[in-house]
TrEMBL record, chain A:
It comes from Puma concolor (Mountain lion). GO terms for biological process: glutathione metabolic process. One of its GO terms (cellular component) is mitochondrion. Keywords: Transferase. GO terms for molecular function: glutathione peroxidase activity; glutathione transferase activity. The keyword Transferase applies. It comes from the Eukaryota. It holds the Pfam family DSBA. This is Glutathione S-transferase kappa. PANTHER family: GLUTATHIONE S-TRANSFERASE KAPPA, GLUTATHIONE S-TRANSFERASE KAPPA 1. Belongs to the GST superfamily. Kappa family. The keyword Ribosomal protein does not apply. Signal peptide: none annotated. The active site is at S16.
TrEMBL record, chain B:
This is Glutathione S-transferase kappa. The keyword Ribonucleoprotein does not apply. SUPFAM superfamilies: Thioredoxin-like (SSF52833). It is an enzyme of class 2 (transferase). Residues 7-198 form the DSBA-like thioredoxin domain.
Length: 226, 214
């Protein structure tokens, strides 16, 4: 007799490199642990504003640190992260509103595609230094993930509808209600309790809370190459 | 033929709970990995000021988060951390200058005692048993009289500046010297990555073959 899978909500934004790292680790473990992973596309800019926090990159020594940290973690976690040439412009100017609305629409209409499309958007901005703000960029990511042009175009036309805008707002507000001041946020529902964990570096602690085995960020029995 | 041990510098302040967590993990691993762990007592308040950073506890949602995070990590890492509810106001008032000068003096005169004395100070600041006792004004005064020599003050300042030169904006900071390169890692949550850089095995925060009880 197997116990019911535990629900994990992962709130993320493709603008956030640490979100990508956390996402890949959890996607690997969802096949290994008794969990039900629910992906929750959110807007990091809105979470920052709501919590009164600031992107760490605005502090010079943190900006310097992050660049090395992300590079080393990418190697260790085997995620092909490469910092964009204009790191600040990507995070602080271009943003991710259209991309996250698109992922919200995907989640509403074709939820099984959400993981792949999310990954393709990260690969654009955080691996190949490509744009994710223009419609043609988002379409390219969706197609690379396996969506037909028609499907992708249809979703793109819906991103400014109240339904999609509200859904993204509601999901982001849910993250805020859990106490988020940044992303990624993993919320584990266990034995009637809720544990909010911030960052891509709380996965070993999550394993401890779940009573599951931590086998590092690249667990065996799966092909680690993306 | 054994390779030379790799030097790790751990910059820490007893005011910093995450420093305690990182400290205990590295103390466990120094017997298991081919490393030479150098403890570097530093002043977190000065690092904050020098880097333009702020204690995370000043942001309400971070303060809320930290209390749970530290509690859960303490259980996982098996370190008896207990946060008093008014911790942040108490700590921001009392600070750690006398404690860190004291540890600096210990490091200068009795370096083999530094690990144990650091641990005892963390226990005093952070364990429930010491919550009421704290560090009394008389005790602090007595220490200050012994440790306010230029030698000790300068040593603490130099160590803290070294952390800043490595790019510190908080503590704990672990600096690994490997193959002619220097890697600065921030936080108690970079130990598995450190193992990867060292080519050593990560066995979780409570590795076997040692007694995890402090």
């Amino acid at each position: 007799m197997t116990a019911a899978p535990r629900t994990l909500e992962l709130f993320y934004d493709v603008l956030s490199p640490y979100s990508w790292l956390g996402f890949e680790v959890l996607c690997r473990y969802k096949k290994l642990w008794n969990i039900n992973l629910q992906l929750r596309p959110s807007l990091i800019a809105a979470i920052m504003k709501d919590s009164g926090n600031q992107p760490p990159a605005l502090l010079p020594r943190k900006a310097q640190y992050l660049q090395n940290d992300i590079r080393l973690l990418g190697q260790h976690i085997q995620v092909p992260i490469q910092l964009p040439k204009d790191f600040f412009s990507v995070i602080l100017e271009k943003g991710s509103l259209s991309a996250m609305r698109f992922l919200t629409a995907v989640n509403l209409e074709h939820p099984k595609m959400l993981e792949k499309v999310s990954r393709e958007l990260w690969m654009r901005v955080w691996s190949r230094d490509e744009d994710i703000s223009e419609p043609k960029s988002i379409l390219a990511a969706a197609e690379k993930a396996g969506m037909s042009t028609e499907q992708a175009q249809g979703l793109l036309e819906k991103i400014s509808t109240p339904k999609v805008k509200n859904e993204l707002r509601d999901t982001t507000n849910a993250a805020c209600k859990y106490g988020a001041f940044g992303l990624p946020v993993t919320v584990a529902h266990l034995d009637g309790q809720t544990h909010m964990l911030f960052g891509s570096d709380r996965m070993e602690l999550l394993a401890h809370l779940l009573g599951e085995k931590w086998m590092g960020p690249v667990p065996p029995a799966i092909n680690a190459k993306i």
